[in-house]
Amino acid sequence: MKKCLIIINELSGSIKRMNLEEIKSVFCFNYEPEVLKLYSKKQKYSPNGFDRVVICGGDGTFSKYFNNAKDCRDPNREIIYIPFGTLNEKAKGNKSLAKLEPVLLNNLGSIADYYFSYVAATGSFTPLGYVVNDKKKKKRKVFSYISKVLKEYKVHHVDATISSISNTNIYIKDTFAIVMILKSKECFGLKFNHLYREDNETLYLLTIKAPKHKNVWGKIKLFFPLFRAFFIGFNKEYRSKYINFIPFKEQLNINLKKDEPFCVDGELVNINKENNLIENINVVNRIAIYKRKDVDKMYAEHKHIDERI
Length: 309
Fold this sequence. Notes:
Layout: E1 2-9, H1 20-27, E2 31-38, E3 52-57, H2 59-68, E4 78-83, H3 89-92, H4 95-98, E5 103-111, E6 114-116, E7 119-123, H5 128-131, H6 134-140, H7 143-149, E8 158-164, E9 171-182, E10 203-209, H8 216-232, E11 238-239, E12 243-248, E13 252-256, E14 260-264, E15 267-271, E16 276-289, H9 292-308
Parallel strand pairs: 1-2, 1-3, 3-4, 4-16
Antiparallel strand pairs: 5-6, 5-16, 7-9, 7-14, 8-9, 8-13, 9-10, 10-12, 11-12, 13-16, 14-15
Helix pairs in contact: 1-9
């Protein structure tokens, strides 16, 4: 009999809403189920020997599966992701989910060999993804982030050069307040990437130039490009003195003056300073994303059929 591994991240913000009986009934029919519960961000595991893996957690849990070990990327293994995080940015940004259809993916973004499903970013506000305590996220949900917003309103200075590898279409060298590589419609809960399409092939680069000073005046100057980027958003490519928003499919290289902490799908990853490749990676698995309420509906239908039988 085929085997199904159910990964449950007990640290995820909405994991209490998970019904294990539903998951087993819907996704383990004709499969032998095994449950793995994660209690630490550093916990390692291997999916070897499993034909299907069901990931129950946040966006970080999803991308960490592929960063866990090379044997996580078996082309014959089916991957199912059911969002039980606090924000669930990747899942919420897909229109197909609103049509009661699973989103099918076959590639992820990559920076310096770290996989991400929706964002890799450094600079102002980006620590929000990883500084919030897991217990607070489970208790206060999205409000646990709001309390940290003012604290993280800082002027960061990220010295970097970002350039295309295959051509010269992108070459930006500056001191940035934010460097973001996006593979989603939204980040920070703000739906500003109006260009996003579910083609799985396009990444989006956002850079915001840093004010010279990190004092109160610097914060005031930073407010205006932040508002332009995250509250007005982009429906086409945008390049100016202070902001760049550029969709790309080719490989990029980012050279940093020093090592920088990046928020990679809500997890802290320290990126080394030189020659960091940014690209789309075909992970060769068939990946399906399901909404929680659709799993409830599928379970109700299964249960109704069983009762009739």
